[in-house]
Amino acid sequence: MQIRVLDATAIREVLSMDRCIELMRRAFEMVATGETIQPVRQALGTPDGRGVVGWMPGYTARPEWLGIKVISVFPSNFGTAFGSHQGMVLLFEAAHGSPVAVLEAGTLTAIRTAAATAVATDVLAPAGARSLGILGYGEQAETHIDALLRVRPFELISIWGRDLHRAARFAARSSERFGVRAVAVADAREAAHADVICAVTAATDPILHGAWLHAGQHLNLVGSSVPTAAEADEETIARGRLFVDFRESALALSGEFRRAKARGLVTDEAIVGCVGDVIVGKVAARAAPTDITVFKSLGMASEDLVASDFVYREAARRGLGVLLDWSSPAESH
Fold this sequence. Notes:
Elements lengths: L1 E5 L1 H7 L2 H16 L3 E2 L4 E4 L6 E10 L2 E10 L11 E9 L5 E6 H20 L6 E5 L3 H10 L7 E5 L3 H15 L2 E4 L3 H4 L4 E4 L18 E4 L12 H6 L1 E4 L2 H7 L1 H8 L8 E4 H5 L13 E4 L4 H18 L3 E4 L8
Parallel strand pairs: 1-7, 8-9, 8-11, 9-10, 11-12, 12-15, 13-14, 13-15
Antiparallel strand pairs: 1-16, 2-4, 3-4, 4-5, 5-6, 6-7
Helix pairs in contact: 2-3, 2-11, 3-4, 3-11
């Protein structure tokens, strides 16, 4: 038996953003149609709060795979030689449980997270959205601009971060790379005026407030992924029409939702549905054009498995990666 090992270079070569957006749409659909098994992500943090390691097992029926992602998240790595997300996805075939692939998880996660946000934006945001507000300028900010421009023809991108000079440098690079006007703003409120807002920060407490929002907007909350952190305040959740990737994860892990619920501003029924529910027609994206839609992204094992399936098969077709002999106990006799 052999295992194919695929590094970041191989994943970038194989997994285009356009293709990954298609794959994430399928992952959302499978959640809505009950074709996945996804235990809520577990995590273990360092005693000093420097970082966490999390594990996300899962099963998908179409294509049929078992797998698990093990990944560390160390936000302070930003600006260093180390990525903020490091780890691997282990892919097992479902007939006999044999491991077939190991994939570098940081790159895969960055692409699939942005692609999932793009699908949610395409499904939930107004068709006429032309301005984008990005809160954050880290690793996920660039991939999200790349992905979101593929679902809406944004004409202006406003970028906010705690360091205005860094935000300005990031805006200049974004303008050059994507051919769209991108500007740094000194106040997060300015970015929050956009038709679509995307928060991709490491904030533990809100940097976005519901009082700033206006009718018809769409908001993506992507950066915080543990119940003790929230990028948006409780009023944002109370005002918004809330959609999630996976309901059980949102109930357990969304800091924004849990804070609003603890204050008595919302109940579990405030979660209108999963993005997949909208795609398959179970629920409507908007009850009225004035609704403020909110997508809370926490990531799903099904996203990792669907993306890994494509990367594994395409890499095998192209002869990419390193093949390792991996004998099972039965084979060693």
